Amino acid sequence: MSTALPKIAWIGLGIMGSPMAENLIKAGYDVTGYTLEQDKLDRLAANGGTAAASIAAAVKDADVVITMVPASPHVEAIAYGEDGILENTKSGALLIDMSSITPQTSVDLAKAGAEKGIRVLDAPVSGGEAGAIEAVLSIMVGGEHADFDEAKPILEALGKTIILCGPHGSGQTVKAANQLIVAVNIQACAEAVIFLEKSGVDLEAALEVLNGGLAGSTVLTRKKQNFLTRDFAPGFRIDLHHKDMGIVTDAARNVGAALPVGAVVANLVASLRAQGDGGLDHSALLRGVARLSGVEA
């Protein structure tokens, strides 16, 4: 293991965080991790990382701290307070938050970090569990250019499209737009699937030809099997997309941007969650269309 590589602390080893941390280990980085579930810590250790007993223990020797947790309250919980990242990370370190949170939370975190001499980047990702495993995520970054340049080799072990989008919070704004596009796209695909099925068309053949034309998309490529098999094991949960639709509708309201279709899809995501489907993959938007169409969901 090269001593020239920065030592990394990884906080949050969920569906996305575990494979991402493992990709850094494969790239030769020394990774110490902390998360709430013991089995995830065991998995990290089994894959060559070091499991820490607390946030403070994980970050104390780190040159770079990476966080990947579900939402703004979780970021605030791990970042602030005497047991948090900012109090226990050395001055001069780089904090890369890869969670999908509100742009304002990222701006506030960067300000709080600066007061401790800790540089901060917001770097949310798109690509889901498959993208995390394959290290082909799209990573949208907000922060200082020099910090982005320093982080880039690390991010290149995690993703394929890595773009600095502007100052602090910009990565989150672009991620919010990403989640808007993805949700609307999944909803359109779901409506097409039910329409095709009710019309008696060979669904697999139809989706193949549609995906070869202008209607084709990464969403359809990634979710086609979910639609065909009705397997909605979570790659990205409805609960999380519900949170993200809240972020984008709120952020759009703040800047005076209308989201006429996005608002409808946000309500459809919320209704699916209210029906108990929050733990399913976001491709389960199909279940909502099926119910409205009188079809077995």
Question: In what order do the strands lie side by side in the largest sheet?
Answer: 3-2-1-4-5-6
**Can you write the helix and strand succession as a string?**
EHEHEHEHHEHEEHEHEHHHHHH
Structural class: alpha/beta
For the record, give the distance between the C-alpha atoms at the N and C termini, rounded to a whole number: 50 Å
Query: Which residues form runs of ≥5 with pLDDT under 50?
Result: none
Q: Level of helix content?
A: 40-55%
On the 0 to 100 scale, the average pLDDT is 97
Q: Could you say which overall geometry the principal axes of the C-alpha atoms support?
A: globular
**What Rg is obtained from the alpha carbons, in whole angstroms?**
20 Å
The largest pleated sheet is described as: 6 strands, parallel
Please count the helical segments: 14
How much of the polypeptide forms β-strand, as a percent range? 5-15%
Q: What's the total number of strands?
A: 9
List the helices and strands and how they pair.
Layout lengths: L7 E4 L5 H10 L4 E4 L3 H9 L3 E2 L3 H5 L4 E4 L4 H8 L5 H4 L5 E4 L5 H13 L3 E4 L2 E2 L1 H7 L2 E6 L2 H11 L3 E8 L3 H29 L4 H9 L6 H12 L8 H18 L4 H18 L7 H8 L5
Parallel strand pairs: 1-2, 1-4, 2-3, 4-5, 5-6, 8-9
Antiparallel strand pairs: 7-8
Helix pairs in contact: 9-11, 9-12, 9-13, 9-14, 10-11, 12-13
